Amino acid sequence: MNSIIEIKDLKKSFYVKDKKQKKIVEAVSGVSLTVNEGEIFGFLGPNGAGKTTTLRMLTTLLPIDEGTVKIAGLDVKKEAKKVRNIIGFVSQIGGGDVEATGIENLMLQGRLYGMSLEEAKKSAEDVLELFGLKEIQNRIVRTYSGGQKRRLEIALGMMHKPKVLFLDEPTTGLDPQNRANMWDYIRKLNSLGTTVFITTHYLDEADELANRIAIMDNGKIVALDTPKELKKQISGDVITIKTKNGENGINELKGSIQKESYVREVSIDNDKLQIYVNDGTKDLPKIFIFLEGKNIVLDTVHLREPSLDDVFLKKTGRKLREGEQSQ
């Protein structure tokens, strides 16, 4: 399979004021990865992990401090103008003119990319059809719903038919139905041959959409593989328990239960204990017997297969949502 994005030892640092002193913070610390032509590639991590900084370097919007990036064989540092002609970028905040109509936004985008009037019209017709916007193309954009605005923003990024489309948190702020609809549009876009690079902090989004995922934390790639293979790293099942004893003694409980032969690993998630076992259906009764023997009263119990959040916990030592809260 041919690679369309090649990143090697990418770094970016910023000066940050801290108690009236300036210090250097390395936002991206030696990122290396490749993205294959025609895939949906997910960039997963908490807010502040370095995802958006990386994305802005890939899309020529931020200077690269160290390392190299090539997109379709073009060097992002040396051939930025050529790179911009073959990529599309949709930021978290979008870029449409809310006081213009949808079609006016699209026509302007096409003309800015050097299209003739006829070329812009044809491309606008194509993306309006693709994203289900034909019926509202003549409405002022500020009257659009959140989902309609987001679809228009992605349509703007597709006007010049880029080889690679970069989407930064494409479904942030959308309700569940609009999120699911957006996933369908992204799949449809990808089926037409566009390579899609998505940054997200939604676990279900990465799991549902991406062919492969890079998990980023503190400026570094801590895991890279397909969602299925990443979850295989956490073999077996996960049993989550909450006791009526409260948080008191949870560390003691963790220390004692992880000595049991059927327990592979134990972690604390707020006031709950996550117990990793080989076979949940066989090992759950053993946990009930263990708790009864310790006079611990069970409040809730949940048996499930490993998730991407378990992978993130294993690689970083914390849950993804905790990483979001700490940024």
Helix share bin: 25-40%
List low-confidence stretches: 322-327
Mean pLDDT: 90
What string, H for helix and E for strand, traces the elements in order? Answer: EEEHEEHEHHHEHEHEEHEHEEHEHH
Assess the beta-strand content as a share of residues: 25-35%
- Count of helical segments? 12
Radius of gyration: 23 Å
The biggest beta sheet reads: 6 strands, mixed
Which secondary-structure class do the elements indicate?
alpha/beta
Strand order of the largest sheet: 6-7-8-3-9-10
What best-fitting shape do the alpha-carbon axes yield?
elongated
User: What separation lies between the terminal Cα atoms?
Assistant: 37 Å
Number of strands: 14
Description:
By secondary structure, the protein is an alpha/beta fold. The protein is 37% helix and 30% strand. Strands 6-7-8-3-9-10 form a six-stranded mixed sheet, sandwiched between helices. The protein has a four-stranded antiparallel sheet with strand order 2-1-4-5, with helices on one face. The protein has a four-stranded antiparallel sheet with strand order 12-13-11-14, covered by helices on one side. Strand 12 and strand 13 form a beta hairpin. Helix 3 (102-112) packs across helix 4 (117-130), helix 4 crosses helix 5 (146-158) and helix 5 (146-158) packs parallel to helix 6 (176-191). The longest helix has 16 residues, at 176-191. The chain is elongated, with a radius of gyration of 23 Å. The model is unreliable at 322-327 (pLDDT under 50).
